[in-house]
Amino acid sequence: MTVSKKLDSHGRITVPKALRLKYGWKSGMSVDVEMKADGTPAVRPHSPTCRFCGAYQNIHRFKDIYICTDCADELKGSIL
Length: 80
Description:
By secondary structure, the chain is an alpha+beta fold. It has helices at residues 17-23, 69-79; strands at 31-35, 41-45, 59-62, 65-68.
């Protein structure tokens, strides 16, 4: 499905209703926008990533900071 949309004066676009319904996107939900290597944007539901390495698997929250298991282990080893 390809739909052409114009940016509004604040740089926003509206996701077409058909896509919101298809993917279950609700008003107010957070999304991540990532630029792919070819310059095209990818939009997906927000998922927390590690503050240090950007990983999105095995993520833990510590005092409002997300950190992956590998970085937590490395940090723990450098402190002790």
